Amino acid sequence: MRDVTLVGGTGFVGMALAEHLVQQGRQVSIVSRRPDAKVPAGVKLVSDGTVPIHQAVVNLAGATIATRWTDAAWTEIEESRVSLTRGLVERFAAQPPEVFVCASAVGFYGDCGDDPVTEARGAGADRAARLCETWEAAAEGAEALGVRTVRARLGIVLGRGGALQAMLPAFRMGAGGPLGSGQQWFSWVHLDDAVRALTLCIDQLQGPVNVVGPNPVRQKDFARTLGATLKRPAFLPAPRFAIKLGLGEAAEMLLASQQAVPQALLDAGFTFRWPELQRALADVV
Fold it and tell me: Residue 205: which CATH number?
């Protein structure tokens, strides 16, 4: 049972993962720039200047990408992912862990239309996809040091935080609805399944892993199901032009279609506790 260092572990996914790992009896350290960050009981908080290298290192760090991509914002996005990952791998040269799990995203695939995509598919061509490709290439530097390396490509994680938290106010007011045409595929995963999948990555897996549920839905169906869960109408679409007006180039990321398949997890015998969207949303909301 590997002890774990979590980099960028104070987000809602990292906190849930840390709590799960402690419950398993592991020693867990969270690396944070904030000395006053609240962490789960039993977790050690350390400054980002002193990264303890446990048997497993999990990198979940990254500045928000759901913002207008000004030059300054994009520099921060890149540095918090690519530069930070390269820095971690450089530290491994002196003290390599057994396994390195680095977060990425299904945005790696770009806009795939209606095509189902497994981990075998290459990177897309848009800006977000190129970022993920460079990010993963930085993580792969650990493989040259003999470190088992996992690139965990996360979909939208449904929990009390993250993207869903940002959606809820509009939907609760009955002002929610699909983004753009709503035809694009939306790859999601319940927080509980995401945490268990990341734990499997720590213990067994290698290479790219789609951390998504087994039943992606079209964006319009996600909006309808969320509205029904909240007992609110969800018919007001956010037009493509309005999203582009508000977010600029970043709008393409929200409007891209990724019907990601968790093939690596399924091949490893992983069992999803929350495979259906309706039950997952009912649990979270």
Answer: 3.40.50.720
Give how many domains the chain has, as a whole number.
Answer: 1
236 class by beta-carbon count within 10 Å (0-12 exposed, 13-18 middle, 19+ buried): middle
Is 15 within a domain?
Answer: yes
pTM of the model: 0.95
Which residue do the tokens 């999990």 mark? 58
Q: Which range marks the domain in which residue 12 is found?
A: 4-162+187-213+259-273
pLDDT tens per residue, the chain (285 residues)? 789 999 988 899 999 999 999 999 999 999 987 778 889 899 999 876 667 777 999 999 999 898 899 999 999 999 999 999 999 999 999 989 999 999 999 999 999 999 999 999 999 999 999 999 999 999 999 999 999 999 999 999 999 988 999 899 999 999 899 999 999 999 999 999 999 999 999 999 999 999 999 999 999 999 999 999 999 998 888 888 888 888 888 888 889 999 999 999 999 999 999 999 999 999 999
